[in-house]
Amino acid sequence: MWKTFKTNRGTGFGTVVSISGGTTSIVGLLGVLGWITGLRALASIRSDYIPMSPDTALAFVCLGLILFFHVRIQERSQSKYLVSAIITLVSIYGLLKSIEYFVNADLTFENLLFPATEKIGSVLIKRMSPISGALLFLSCIALELKLLLETRQMIPNVIGSLGLI
């Protein structure tokens, strides 16, 4: 998948993508561990900040692992469809989380998996921010375009524009 980047931009670009993906996965794993162990400080930057929601942490783990491993796997048709399916699921979930804010309805299964009972101030914790949902959606669109349409001429510009956002 990343062969085009490696040949056009040198081998260092694959290393940067791997490090970024690994870092994203580690941040997500810390969030997941924070919720599993009850150590909320693992899921947030500081103890007085609102912690990362469990579903955001799981999305970070999924997308980070895709970036980390897909650089090494390159193109394998078997993994391409599995990776595409995971990206699509995270993308749809992010879109639904951002739409929820505007329609004021629960469009996902977040309340079943991660019931929110605690508040920090007036904010329920364990809830993905609508901004996080929109950014996950845009990130997933960029990954999906790179995965499926990387040979098209205009796609790198579109991916770069989504990354800029």
Number of helices: 7
Strand order of the largest sheet: 1-2
Overall shape? globular
The first-to-last residue Cα distance is 23 Å
Low-pLDDT stretches are 1-9
Return Rg in Å: 17 Å
Main sheet specs: 2 strands, antiparallel
Percent helix: 55-70%
Order of helices and strands: HHHHHEEHH
Structural class of the helices, strands and pairings? mainly alpha
Taking all residues together, what is the mean pLDDT?
A: 79
Number of strands: 2
What fraction of the residues are assigned to beta strands by DSSP?
under 5%
Account of the 3D structure:
The protein contains seven helices and two strands. A hairpin with a 2-residue loop joins strand 1 (119-120) and strand 2 (123-124). It starts with a helix and ends with a helix. With 165 residues, the protein is mainly alpha-helical. It is globular.
Task: Give the structure's gist in a few sentences.
This protein is mostly helical and 165 residues long.
Please tag this protein with its features.
165 residues, mainly alpha, two-stranded antiparallel sheet, 7 helices, 2 strands
Summarize the topology.
Elements: H1 3-9, H2 12-37, H3 54-73, H4 77-103, H5 110-113, E1 119-120, E2 123-124, H6 130-149, H7 155-164
Antiparallel strand pairs: 1-2
Helix pairs in contact: 2-3, 3-4, 4-6, 6-7
